[in-house]
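ok trying this again, last paste got cut off
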Amino acid sequence: MPRTRPVFAPIPESPALVATATAADVWAEGALGVPAAAEFIGIGRSEFWREMDAGRIAFVKHGTKRLIAKRVLVAWLARKDHSGVKT
């Protein structure tokens, strides 16, 4: 059965909020590690790492692990052009 992607409304992000977030804040609001976050938005891990390195996906480091808030992933999906994306 083919998976369908939900449609999300844009969520404004505050750069100040992302910059001051702690790992505990991100985890409390719902966060994913890199493999799960990449699967959540439907891209490969390599592309996901490129998006983080380019600053298009914000993250918080907790030790050696990167945590990505679900709201950041939803905002990323809202900014992307999904024309031609297979569902």
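PB: full thing came through this time. DSSP finds five helices and three strands in the chain.
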